[in-house]
Amino acid sequence: MEAASAEKKSKSVEKKIAARAATAAIDPLLNDQFNAGRLYAVIASRPGQSGRCDGYILEGKELEFYLRKIKSKKQH
């Protein structure tokens, strides 16, 4: 990752990156997870794929849904 940031970038690429950074926003729930040092994710590997685990980080409505489920489970 550091090697990619160390290489020279054209002015148009720098302009694109600056424009995206100005409008980029992280979901507050996702930010809370980063601060806690723990992320909720879903394993999405296909059957028969031994030794490999694919998945994705939960965010948005899906994250809210699972947080509600976890909270209701803890109350019972």
From TrEMBL:
* Organism, scientific name: Rhizopus delemar
Q: Which GO terms describe its molecular function?
A: structural constituent of ribosome
The name this protein carries in UniProt is: 40S ribosomal protein S8
- What family name appears in the similarity comment? Belongs to the eukaryotic ribosomal protein eS8 family.
- An example Pfam family from this entry, by short name, is Ribosomal_S8e
Q: Which UniProt keywords apply?
A: Ribonucleoprotein, Ribosomal protein
Q: Which residues form a coiled coil?
A: none
- List, in alphabetical order, the GO biological process terms annotated in this UniProt record: translation
Any one GO cellular component localisation term in the record = ribonucleoprotein complex
Superkingdom of origin organism = Eukaryota
